[in-house]
Request: fold
Amino acid sequence: MSKLKVIPEKSLTNNSRIVGLLAQLEKINAEPSESDTARYVTSKILHLAQSQEKTRREMTAKGSTGMEILLSTLENTKDLQTTLNILSILVELVSAGGGRRVSFLVTKGGSQILLQLLMNASKESPPHEDLMVQIHSILAKIGPKDKKFGVKARINGALNITLNLVKQNLQNHRLVLPCLQLLRVYSANSVNSVSLGKNGVVELMFKIIGPFSKKNSSLIKVALDTLAALLKSKTNARRAVDRGYVQVLLTIYVDWHRHDNRHRNMLIRKGILQSLKSVTNIKLGRKAFIDANGMKILYNTSQECLAVRTLDPLVNTSSLIMRKCFPKNRLPLPTIKSSFHFQLPVIPVTGPVAQLYSLPPEVDDVVDESDDNDDIDVEAENETENEDDLDQNFKNDDIETDINKLKPQQEPGRTIEDLKMYEHLFPELVDDFQDYDLISKEPKPFVFEGKVRGPIVVPTAGEETSGNSGNLRKVVMKENISSKEDEGEKKSTFMDLAKEDTKDNDRTLQQQPAPGFTAEVKKDCSLPLTVLTCAKACPHMATCGNVLFEGRTVQLGKLCCTGVETEDDEDTESNSSVEQASVEVPDGPTLHDPDLYIEIVKNTKSVPEYSEVAYPDYFGHVPPPFKEPILERPYGVQRTKIAQDIERLIHQSDIIDRVVYDLDNPNYTIPEEGDILKFNSKFESGNLRKVIQIRKNEYDLILNSDINSNHYHQWFYFEVSGMRPGVAYRFNIINCEKSNSQFNYGMQPLMYSVQEALNARPWWIRMGTDICYYKNHFSRSSVAAGGQKGKSYYTITFTVSFPHKDDVCYFAYHYPYTYSTLQMHLQKLESAHNPQQIYFRKDVLCETLSGNSCPLVTITAMPESNYYEHICHFRNRPYVFLSARVHPGETNASWVMKGTLEYLMSNNPTAQSLRESYIFKIVPMLNPDGVINGNHRCSLSGEDLNRQWQSPNPDLHPTIYHAKGLLQYLAAVKRLPLVYCDYHGHSRKKNVFMYGCSIKETVWHTNDNATSCDVVEDTGYRGLQIGTRELEEMGAKFCVGLLRLKRLTSPLEYNLPSSLLDFENDLIESSCKVTSPTTYVLDEDEPRFLEEVDYSAESNDELDIELAENVGDYEPSAQEEVLSDSELSRTYLP
Reply:
């Protein structure tokens, strides 16, 4: 029998050597030869693969046939040594190449061939040890990369082969180690895990793991990893609980904790914790953990580990287990429904509000009989083949995701006869301006001939139907006549609220004080009036408040006069004190007037019938003259707070548990002790339901549900008094519902100090340290969680040290902006504008459920004269429809709207150009009732108004019904708005972004791309918390963007000065270059940065470092040392 000629190695380069060897091996497969030749060739290939990375790279390169040749030989050969050589080659290839080479082997069918080889090898008695070690080692490496590996292994019968090998060779650690590694891979499949559990694999693992030992640490580590994977199956977890293994695991963990003084076996200790974490996923496991005193054991051991940063993975995992096992508590409330009740005129037939009204009064809606739903579930026997299906889709509460709802509905709209009710809200379409004092008079006035002319339509406004023109009736707007005492001042100083300073990017819209500068106080400035008024009123102020006006009683909140601190000893009414208390005021008139605010509040209707006024709303807010950077999060703050919560269970005698504020119990007694804080939320937009003192300086706070609802807890606004300076008070808001919050990423709550306001600093400031947001141990009932059981509430916790003794301070989720504030601002804008230049009209769109008016604002430029062409030009300006505050808790939307309104009413040349280009129809507050009553998301109907646009009910959703009616009316007269923008806030996203009605519609519908210009980011905003100055700036810059849109869409080109367009280009800024007109926001809308740290409210505040699974050496790697010991710098995006 002739032998194949082997080519001498030295005559070939490395490249041709491996190619030649593989060609010889392929020829051997085609022409069966003696086994020693195959043995020789494979040994040479193995030598090259072990010594040269170039060889390994070439064999796994795209287009290479090397892998197929090796697998074909492995499948066909009967020679043991050839098989071992090829397995060694495969181990070399996948060990050094990472995941890509493993995946390459899987795609070539390696999993099936190796599993078949395992089956064949198991038939020998006894099985060859080296062969079994090699097969199990390589299968353990490639199994995780094969999504169907679990199914393949089960079909081939590999599970029992590996399990029996372990049972029969417990003392042979060389063979057991790779078998355990493969068992861990098998167990990733739930069906396999159950099957292995039935065959005694859990009991087998406990024969391998045990108390502290310096021997066999590698084997124990892999056994623990396998056990943790097995116990993820609820069937296996129950089996472990029944056999008392929870107590065993705790005992073993304590033993390793005590003896591992040099922390060389941290991975073993973590493996024990991972097994406990798996077994406590079921209720029986959590009960067994509590009964075994596991809370105290893990608490004590984790506290001892805090001093060593490399042990952080142990602390974090212990914390996760304790949080999970912490007994679920019910919220200390009689009902989760709102403390306030409002009877609806119509009860919805279906939906959550209907369920709320149909709930029997005897039902306990705070908590369910069981806090778990996991024991009800039966182990799924049908495996999920695609692991991607297990991922939960991102749910965004702020946009509609139902495709059917997003499709245009061809439903019959309201008739033109029905829509006539909105004619009076569009007088600008028919007004002849004969009664107006316009800037100039033309020789040919527009003459009214007894017949109302419809709008003269130009291409930008669409085509006009002749049938509708006669339906428009003439409405003459009355002139805005101001009082005599203000008339002279307003003539001399019209509004100029939008001063730009593009050089230093510190643009002031309104009331921006300059540091180190004091100006004289003008008559209508809020601050000096406040200081003088309070100084006079304080000596006569009763303890229950100060009655300011006759008629309906309206009171200011409590103010302890004896505790008011001034910054010098002079009389507050003296000139020096007034000068000291003054702030810089812009040239234009301020929009805040305390006396006017009180008058407006007297007409504001609230469900609780509030009679108090919060000081921040009375004093007003001026943006502070300093920037407020995002708060850097201290290392380990969240787990420290969680540990303090766990101490409540371990050291129950230390808990005071005293109610100090309760809306549900009007007869509760306010503690008289001087060291207890006093709380209040009985004022417009206030929200705080109950306060419980936990420790001396720690309080649990519970928020009120939206009226006619049993959830939506996020907005808070409350008053605190009776504090001592220099004391760190911890506040825990314990019934939040969202899964994460910007409080985990550097945002701080807002605080307003009355003492600071009296000392000339009337502003909301970011305040608080040790801030985090995490899942707590208070259980949400299925009634409050949409039918889901076992869900928990979340806690916002922050610590505050107050600067003044006996101050009155207010805390809020975001800058408050009340309904009365809006009405005051609109009244001030109306009284201060120039009627010859600006067409401003404030109408009432409708009344809300509680009888408050919903304002509708119209802003445009007055026609140059009542000359025919000027009137035609006026009437045919395109409409821009703006709205805001459909969600009451999104107060930032109102501040952006304030910036829009002030800018449109200013004397800025660009603002004038905007007014001359568009007619602005604005509904600045779509949900007045929700805002007034401190709701977060709903109106008094208990429904999210932003989900009612498709079929609004005029009795339950009047503001939406009539706002939609305005749009339908404009459509009926062929005057659809060019733009409709609704202003919102977002609790978990940063920066500024846009949503459309659907993904396809989130595009500027223009012939030219309005967003594709190259723009440069102003980095001055990076790292800052957004304040009212920035919010108002957003509102102004949005308007300027509309001017750009007009230039790109309108065939009517107005001759704008080039300086205006250059200025507009400078004003519009963005954080990136936009390459597509599509601006919709994806789930991951924020770019990833190396400095970004992800804090999860579901787990602990530090990312649990995934330690390397090196079975040979369990010393912490250098990378782990660096990650553990270094103080990771954290940079947050604005």
Summary: The mean pLDDT is 77. Residues 249 and 272 are 7 Å apart (CA to CA). The longest strand covers residues 769-779.
